[in-house]
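Bench log. Compound arrived from synthesis this morning; before running ITC I wanted a structural hypothesis for how beta-D-glucopyranose sits in the protein. Inputs:
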Amino acid sequence: MTHTPMFAHAFKSPLLRFGIAAAAAGLLALSAQGANAQFKGPEYSTDVKNSSGRDLDVLQDEVKGYNDLFKNGKKFEEISAEAQVARMGAGINWGGYDGWWTGGKTTFNPDKDIPRMKAAGFTTLRVPLMAFHHIVDTKGDMDPKYLEKIDEVVAAAVKNNMDVILDEHDFDDCAKDTDACAVLLPNVWYDLSERYKSAPNNVIFELLNEPHGAIDDKVWNDWLSGLIGIVRQTNPKRNIIIGPVMWNSVDQLDKLKLPADDRHIIVTFHYYSPMEFTHQGASWVGGAIEQGRNVRWTGTPDQMAKLNADFDKAAAWGKANNRPIFLGEYGTYGKFNPNMDDRVAWTHAVSKAADDRGFARAYWYYSDGDGFGVYDPDKGQWVQPLLNALLPKGH
Ligand code: BGC
């Protein structure tokens, strides 16, 4: 297939202003301005200026709280990818879908919810970011108010001694239009890596959630070297998270090509198997799975054997390739699944499978009403059986 080589331009041509309006037309639900963003390659990377010509440090100074957080506060210290994964332990996802980011309907309050996660026993917060939708001008800059929101979440996590993953989560847009993604994704990483370059090592970057669709292994491996290069200009030692194609499938790990000399990479996979069980009723999956009802998972010998085989595969790959592993998403959709005992059994078995092999992990999802959530904001309480299944002390 043909695709836009994402970064060839950034490092080889003197200056490329790369408009993508045509590629984006009709395909992406991006903001009109975002879809017209221009590539920030060489001028940005060499001068450490953004494409509006303003010095980024000055820009950052303008942002309330930024200095306190990352410049005068805790400093970045190198930590190996292995040590980071050991520290990450049991994590939880919360982020970009929440109305909190856009001033929409929300119950989320970082100063309450993040301490609540920590008090329950979670040590890592993975934050999906729909950053493409917050690109506000044709130069590819992100809305400063949006960046402040990210600061706020990062600050609350750091304050609570949690690791915090900034996960670029525009994966569906990227799968539909690789040309647009080839511009927007590096733009986002130029901005985020510059902004958080002095942040403590609690902050980890995840380059793209679940590459799939038009992003096959060839495209992804090609993009990766460029994306890693962008981050490494400002964050040479920060740990970053990268997963394989096909929605971060364990079966695609073998196709992932990583720079052997970059030791600050954590490899991720997601686990929702069997989909017929975890996603029964899910409209976004469609087909028989959407129609599925009362599909059971009780931890039969066959079910456990499949689970262990999948996790052994991830562990073997990690060992052979000398990379620590992070299970970045796993969970069960509850709206059409009446069997809480099954959900608990699966959640416990998957959490334990990860813990037994030394993987860090993050449950999908903190709080989303009747979907996957382990915290019920309406009742103001944890869904206790699910929470028990998630925490190491329950194993
Ligand atoms: C997606 C969510 C989805 C979840 C489980 C995540 O990666 O962003 O929209 O609910 O996977 O399917």
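What the model suggests: Residues 275 and 293 are 12 Å apart (CA to CA). The chain has one domain: 4-390.
ITC booked for Thursday regardless.
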